[in-house]
Amino acid sequence: MRYQKTHKDDTRRRVLEVASRNFRQNGLVGTGVATIMADAGLTNGAFFTHFRSKEALIEEVFESASDIGYQGLVEAGTAGGIEAIVRRYMRPEHRDHPERGCPAAALGPEVARHSPATRAAFTRKFQRMVDLINSHLPSPNESRAQAIFGTLIGAMQLARSVSDPALSDQLLNSGIEAGIVLARA
Amino acid sequence: MRYQKTHKDDTRRRVLEVASRNFRQNGLVGTGVATIMADAGLTNGAFFTHFRSKEALIEEVFESASDIGYQGLVEAGTAGGIEAIVRRYMRPEHRDHPERGCPAAALGPEVARHSPATRAAFTRKFQRMVDLINSHLPSPNESRAQAIFGTLIGAMQLARSVSDPALSDQLLNSGIEAGIVLARA
DNA sequence: TGTACATCAGTGAACGCGCGTTCACTGATGTAC
DNA sequence: TGTACATCAGTGAACGCGCGTTCACTGATGTAC
């Protein structure tokens, strides 16, 4: 072999990370295979030695792309409970950098249009997030944890969509308040 | 003139309605001009006698497409207050027919990627919805109304994205419960 | 009343471009002898 | 140790296709005389 044993796996992982970032930035339909490969330092042809198709890549992104944002939320929860999780999620930095943030907030409606396999992978990530929230509720309540996640996603999307910066900041705060109310009620 | 005076305006309105439906169904990037025109019973060339560009169409859709879903929520609010609004929004029919439903739930993250003019038009529709919710709160509270709207959007998107139908139904209920809690707290 | 011309919403072919995907090829390295 | 061959990740041109957009044209009707 003319490459290290780990070389192909390394490349594959790199493509997954780049794809995950680009998808969150420009959408699933808005991101092309050639762009992903160029950003990973390769040419388009190599893509299909790693993945069967673009749809297969999308599925794998939801299954396995490493999730720095999620780790930060785990740490916030350990340090400051549910309120810290909510505050961390609703940070201006998160609003301003969807490419490093929550896939549900960046891609929600697009996931709904994709294959069952992709939606199943998304569901697993969703459940992990609900479990994290639930584990920090004063009295655990799956339904409530789901709703809190929904509130975070919705408020974050609105903060990103609205054209008035002051209103956008206010939406982040509205999301924080509501998240805390829901956690306590 | 070989057409009625109203003819061109009628066509224009029809294209806007078809576009609005198709956008919510397949996304802004996922919907082509030729498809919209074919669904409106015309050929692609006619598009540019009505709109400067696809981006201009998108902007106008957010500005002016008639909103049957919104009217239904107004009536629900009049009849049954905030709880009826929340229940109506979170209906399974809404989840299963994004093409007839809330643009924010169907297109949120895509709007965030579009032109300032499009986002400004979106902001106006957003504000109208927040006002409706706020007018039915026991004690009016803009921030709370914003958060309730966020909760509805987020919960609806999750219900549409998740692959397990039972979980999807549960998410609709979680959204209803949370909406009511937020309205009362 | 009948003919010539102006109007203009809509037609449909064509434009360059980027998409996802295929494929013959390259070239660096490891293995066999 | 030196040469011939096998391996295979990656290259880059090419495929058909649909995209947004342009444009010369059509044809039904209204107006002028």
Question: Could you state the oligomeric state of the chains shown?
Answer: homodimer
Gross geometry of chain A: globular
Amount of beta strand of chain A: under 5%
Average pLDDT rating of chain A: 95
- Biggest sheet descriptor of chain A: none
How many alpha or pi helices of chain A?
10
Order of helices and strands of chain A: HHHHHHHHHH
- Helix % of chain A is over 70%
β-strand number of chain A: 0
Give a quick set of tags describing it.
homodimer; 185 residues; mainly alpha; DNA-binding
Walk me through what this model shows.
2 copies of one chain form a homodimer. With 185 residues, the first copy, chain A, is mostly helical. In chain A, 75% of the residues lie in helices and 0% in strands. Chain A has 10 helices and no strands. Chain A has helices at 7-26, 33-39, 47-50, 54-64, 68-89, 92-96, 103-112, 116-135, 142-161, 165-184. In chain A, helix 1 (7-26) packs across helix 4 (54-64), helix 5 (68-89) packs across helix 10 and helix 8 packs across helix 9 (142-161). Chain A starts with 6 loop residues before the first helix and ends with a helix. In chain A, 44% of the residues are buried. The mean pLDDT of chain A is 95. At the A-B interface, helix 7, helix 8, helix 9 and helix 10 of A face helix 7, helix 8, helix 9 and helix 10 of B. The structure holds a DNA duplex (33 and 33 nucleotides).
Task: List the SSEs and their pairings.
Two copies of one chain form a homodimer.
Chain A: H1 7-26, H2 33-39, H3 47-50, H4 54-64, H5 68-89, H6 92-96, H7 103-112, H8 116-135, H9 142-161, H10 165-184
Helix pairs in contact in A: 1-4, 4-8, 5-10, 8-9, 9-10
The structure holds a DNA duplex (33 and 33 nucleotides).
